[in-house]
Amino acid sequence: MKKSFQIGSAFVGLIVGAGFASGQEVMQYFTSFGIWGTAGGIVTTLLFIFLGYTFAKLGTNLRANSHQTVLYYIGGKFIGPVLDIVITFFLFGVAVVMFAGAGSTFNQMFGITAVAGSIIMTAAVILTLLLNTNKILGIIATITPYLIAVIFVILIYSIFSMDLSIAEADELAKQQPSAASNWLLGAFLYVSYNLAAGAALLIIMTGNEKDKKAAGMGGVLGGLMLGILIILIHIGMFARIDVVAGKDMPTLELANQIHPVIGLLTAVALLGMIYNTAVGMLYSFTVRFIAPESKSYRPAVIVIGILGFIASLIGFTTLVGSVYVVMGYLGFVLIILAVAAWLRKPQNN
Length: 349
What we know:
CATH class: Mainly Alpha
Shape: globular
Number of helices: 14
CATH architecture: Up-down Bundle
Number of domains: 1
Strand content: under 5%
Distance between the termini: 15 Å
Radius of gyration: 19 Å
CATH topology: Amino acid/polyamine transporter I
C-alpha cells in the first residue's frame, strides 16, 4: 500500500502543476459552468481513476522504460510514431504554460512583472537540468500533502465566508471564460489534456515496478486524489466567485483573502509545483531527442529553455485556453487507443 501511495502521490504531483494548481484551469473547465461544474468534477474523478489504472497497468505489464514503448504498442507502427511526436511536443507545450504561470504568480503575489517572473522560473529550470538530471523528479511526491492541506484551508474559508446566494454565484460563474461548450465536454477535455501531459511520466514510473497490483492501485489512488482536489478547488472558487472572477491565479487570490501568510505559503506551493512540472516536462522533451550524457545536451537545454520562455510571453490565461484545448482533443486519440489496447489483451494481475 505504501508503494501504491508513493506512485499515486507522484502522479498527482506531476499533473498538479500542469492541471490545476493555479485554479485558472479549474475555472475554465469546471467553475465557468456554475453548479454543473461539480458534476463535471465527479465525471473527471471517475475518468482519472480508470485511466490512471489503465496507463499504470500498461506501463508495468510492458516493463516500459520510455513512453515510446507503450505508444508504439497501443498505436502500432503507423499511429505509434504519430502519437510519439504529438506527446513529445505536448511536453514542451506544458513547460511553456508553466513558465507563463510562474510569471503570473510572481506578478500577483510579489508585484514582480510577469516577464521577470517567467525569466526567474526559466533560469531555475535550466540550471536544474544542467546541474542535476538524476533526481529531477525526487521531490514531486512530497508536495502533494502540502497542497492538500492548503486547499482544505482555502475551501473551508471560502464556504464560511460566502456572501452570494447559490443562484447569484451560479450566474456570475457562467460569465467567466470557458474552455469548452458544455460541462461534460469540459470534463473529458480536462482529463484528456492532463493525461496527454502526464501519461508519459506515469508509464515510466510504473515501468520498473515489479508489483503489478501496487502499480495499478497507485494509478487508482492518484486518480482519486486528483479528482477530489479538483472538486474541492471548484467548490472553493464557486463559493467566492465574486472575489476570483477575472484573476489569473484564483487559488492565490483566495489564499490572500484569508491572510497574507496563507497567501505567501500558497504562492510558494504554486511555484514549487510549477517548477517541478516544468523541470519534468522540459527534461522529458529534451532527452527524447538528445541523450543526457551527450555533449549537445547542455546547449540544447539552454536553447530549448529560452524558446520556451519566448513562447510563454503569449500569456498564461491565453495559453491555458488554447494550448490545453488542442492537447485535450488530440489526447482523446491517446486515451481511446490505450483503453482499446488494455481491453484486447488480458492483463496480468
